[in-house]
C-alpha cells in the first residue's frame, strides 16, 4: 500500500514537472524512459538543448533537500549514456536536470545538476 502511494505521488510529480517545463518553453520528448541502467523521468528539448530530467516529489519542502544525491545522479547519468543518441543529434547540447517538487511550493529546477 505504501509503495503504491509513493508510485502515485511520483507519477503526479512527473506530471507537474512536465507542465512546469512546458510553461517554460520546453517540449517534452518522452517520459518514464526505461534503459538497461535505469529510468529517466522526463526528456525535454528547448532549441538545441536536450535535458534528461530526474523528478523528485516529497510530501514536504524540508525533505527536498535530501531527495537527490550524487549516487542517484550517477544512476541517471548511466541511463542517459544508453539513450542520449536517440534524442540528441549532432550539434545538440545535453544536460541532466533535476526538478524538486513539494505541495504548496513552486518547483525547484536545478539545471545541469550532474557534472562528473
From TrEMBL:
Family: Belongs to the UPF0102 family.
Source organism (scientific name): Qipengyuania benthica
Pfam families in alphabetical order: UPF0102
Superkingdom of this protein's organism: Bacteria
Protein name (Swiss-Prot/TrEMBL): UPF0102 protein Q9K01_06420
InterPro entries assigned to the protein according to its UniProt record, in alphabetical order: Restrct_endonuc-II-like, tRNA_endonuc-like_dom_sf, UPF0102_YraN-like
Signal sequence range: none
